[in-house]
Amino acid sequence: QLQLVESGGGLVQPGGSLTLSCAASGFSLDYYTIGWFRQVPGKEREGVSCLSSRDGSTYYSDSVKGRFTISRDNAKNTAYLRMNSLKPEDTAVYYCATALLTTVQNMCERRRVNSWGQGTQVTVSS
Questions:
Q1: What b/e string do you get for 62-96 counting C-beta neighbours within 10 Å, with b at 16 or more?
Q2: Alpha-carbon gap, residue 44 to 64, rounded angstroms
Q3: Blockwise average pLDDT, block size 10, the chain, 126 residues
Q4: Which of 44, 75, 119, 121 has its CA 20 to 30 A from that of 37?
Q5: Which value, in Å, is the radius of gyration of the alpha carbons in the chain?
Q6: What is the pLDDT of residue 2?
Q7: Sequence-separated (6 or more) residues with CB below 8 Å from residue 113
Q8: Rounded to whole angstroms, how far apart are CA atoms 46 and 44?
Q9: What whole-number distance in Å separates Cα of residue 89 and Cα of residue 60?
Q10: Positive or negative, the Cα torsion across 17, 22, 28, 30?
Q11: How far apart are alpha carbons 8 and 18 in whole angstroms?
Q12: pLDDT score, position 22
């Protein structure tokens, strides 16, 4: 069974940090573009960051650029999102996703996704 499972969400104070993990099972992440998206109630799911398997190119939304870092460990079949300097507006459910044969821009900006994880809640509050 092909599955993506996120972990690492939780409650953090403004200015704090979290690292989200996305473990893949049933398939190898090696050849997939991976991405992190987030969604708050009443709004569309937005692309936060995407990472190409082909050339290592990355995409970051303007709202997280300089604060978040996407990475992958193919040996562990896991993707990560390191989030620093968190703000209350970063509060959302965060989803990881995979895509084949697409650019990071298409994946993150147009949500060209093959598979989604179930999501993990991140709450930034004092």
A1: eebeeebbbebeeeebbbbbebeebeeebbbbbbb
A2: 17
A3: 93 98 93 96 97 94 98 96 98 97 94 95 98
A4: 75
A5: 13
A6: 83
A7: 35, 37, 97, 98, 99, 107
A8: 6
A9: 16
A10: negative
A11: 7
A12: 98
Phi, psi angle pair for 109, to nearest 5°: -85, -30
Q: How many CB atoms lie within 10 A of CB 31?
A: 12
Half-sphere exposure of 14 (CA within 13 A, CB side): 5
Contact present, 82 and 19 (Cβ < 8 Å) = yes
Listed residue (96, 88, 72) closest to 8, CA to CA: 96
Q: How far apart are CA 3 and CA 93, in angstroms?
A: 18
Nearest CA to 126 out of 11, 9, 20 is that of: 11
